[in-house]
Amino acid sequence: VAGNKSKDGVLLTLDAIKASIRFRKSIADGWLKSLDNVKNSSEHLVIDVFAVLILYAVTSKRKPVESLLRNKIRSGCFTEDVLSMAFKSYGQVLREYFENLLVISEVLLRSPDSVVSSYAKKIYVQAFLTFDLYCKQEVVGALVTHVGSGFPNEADSSLDVLSDLVEHHPSHMSSFAIFLKARGILDYLDNLSVGQIRKLFVMLSTLAFHNNDGSMIQV
To answer: Which spans are transmembrane here (predicted)?
Structure first.
């Protein structure tokens, strides 16, 4: 009960911020400027993660928000620690912003900057481990889409995330093996390099061993 009250209190606060940003452009601009002015990672708080998500959700400033986020990640101001803290302490609240979190992750993973794409990989992993079954499925589906994008770096990053999840959380990933096989990554084999195909079959073999299901590695 106490946990629900805490969640409700945070949601009410965020709803108030969301309403003010939605109806007053100057407040949205103020939040963007305030976030941009923070130059030290130790000064960024979990509320800043939510501010980014709210700005992304309720304004027409998606491009400026994406640019701000990339710059923050490159400069080391938005650390993985503040991201982990947001998921660990406010996972239920973050769930309310899952759709926007997923879109942001997709945008960041496409970045040619390895620092930025690496941050996206962390978001995907945290979202998969923290949220419900529906969200897990959406995360895996988004990662499979990245693999089929036709861009080698994007496919590599996505396969890295999937491999990490399969290796360390096979029981969770076994439910989504179909995404890696029929109507999944196997449909994109012609676009994958030998190394990427090898990584895919290692994943399938791991899940087959975990599930004691030899049919999983049959093409």
So the answer is: none
Q: What is the pLDDT of residues 191-216, one digit of tens each?
A: 899 999 999 999 999 998 887 754 44
For the chain, the domains span 1-131, 132-218
pTM: 0.89
- Tens digits of per-residue pLDDT, 121-165? 999 999 999 999 999 999 999 999 999 988 999 999 999 999 999
Integer Cα distance of 6 and 160 in angstroms: 35
